[in-house]
Amino acid sequence: MTVLVTGGLGFVGSHFVWAAADAGLRVVVLDDQSAAGRPRLPDAVEVVVGCVGDAERVADLLARHRPEAIVHFAGKIEVGESVRNPGLYFDVNFVRALRLLDAAVAAGVESFVFSSTAAVYGEPRAVPIPETARTEPINPYGASKLAFEHALAGYSAAHGLRWCAPRYFNAAGARPDGTLVEAHDPETHLIPLVVDAGLGRRGPISIFGDDYDTPDGTCIRDYVHVCDLADAHLRALERLAAGETIGPVNLGTGRGSSVREVIDAAGDVLGAPVPHGVAARRAGDPTALVADARAAAERLGWRPRRSDLATIVEDAVRSRRN
Ligand code: UFG
Questions:
Q1: Does residue 130 lie within any of the structural domains?
Q2: Fewer CB within 10 Å: C terminus or N terminus of the chain?
Q3: pLDDT per residue over 57-98, tens digit each?
Q4: What pLDDT digit, counting tens, does each position of 23-42 carry?
């Protein structure tokens, strides 16, 4: 199978490219090189530099490579930035993605996998969150991702395109061989920041609020290993190729960890406590986000293998030491 992977130079995208190449898929990457860093990809993978909204270039790529499937990772991911600049988020995550989708349908691409997010749920009424929970995003990031899920449903009904939208909870970790690393600029994600604080590469980590209604007062998230995410995408591609359509599916573990638990886990791996302090709450942070992950198990046969907190942190430490 040939797969066009957009955003294949990003954190989740690059992990998927390796997993797909390891599984014997032929992979072509389309990426605008806007992510921090330049990951090493398998030699056989052609990387085309360009934007998913460039209709001519995408049509040319699809005509040349004739992929059966597109896995669309390219997008903007910063919640705070989306609040300050909603136009950028709707343009990149919706308008440009729609150009890609039009090109895909015109070229007869059969399957489409789209990186979505738990941010589509907004502030959940209850956790764990099933896919049937109300989708009420509280920022343009989540809204732009949800809008594109709706577009996929419409295109599927009208044109027969088969699709899956994995909704990631908190992607973390790295390939255990240390070849890839989570890199964002600026880095705002908890685990890379905690690891860097523990390695003495930055000052103490700030806990954004310790007065939440949780057992230790800090926010709870469902951290899921990026290699497990990559595996779920491969399973989705298999199902779509077999003629099924999946729709939205949560990718999380069903277990949450608090910010303090992450800091403690990093201290255990590093052999010394990670310096930290308590700061004010960060605007827009829900108290707890935990997936009901049963649909991924039932529909994709997916079970996370490396997503226990200790393994995630060990892999993150190894990759950042490299
Ligand atoms: N946190 C801190 N200190 C920091 C950084 C983060 O206490 O220096 C806390 C946050 O307040 C939050 C938790 O650590 O409670 C996790 O924060 P991240 O920034 O790592 O991740 P988020 O949960 O905010 O966001 C992630 C993705 C989003 C996605 C969201 C939805 O980055 O793209 O999950 O599940 F929308």
A1: yes
A2: C
A3: 999 999 999 999 999 999 999 988 999 999 999 999 999 999
A4: 999 999 999 999 888 899 99
- State the alpha helices, DSSP H only, in the chain: 11-22, 55-65, 79-84, 86-90, 97-106, 140-159, 190-198, 226-241, 259-270, 294-300, 309-321
Write the CATH number for 44: 3.40.50.720
259 lines ligand 1 (CB under 6 A): yes
Average pLDDT over residues 301-307: 98
pTM for this prediction: 0.97
Q: Is 141 a catalytic residue?
A: yes
State the residue range of the domain holding 229. Answer: 2-172+223-252
Q: Are residues 95 and 135 in the same domain?
A: yes
Nearest to 191 by CA among 270, 90, 278: 270
Residues 207 and 229 in one domain: no
For ligand 1, atom 20, name the residue with the nearest CA: 189
Q: Are residues 127 and 198 in the same domain?
A: no
Q: Torsions phi, psi of 72, nearest 5?
A: -105, 95
| Mutational pocket test of ligand 1: of 123, 129, 170, the residue with most ligand atoms within 8 Å of the beta carbon | 170
Among 202, 205, 216, 221, the mutation site with the greatest number of ligand 1 atoms within 8 A of its Cβ is: 221
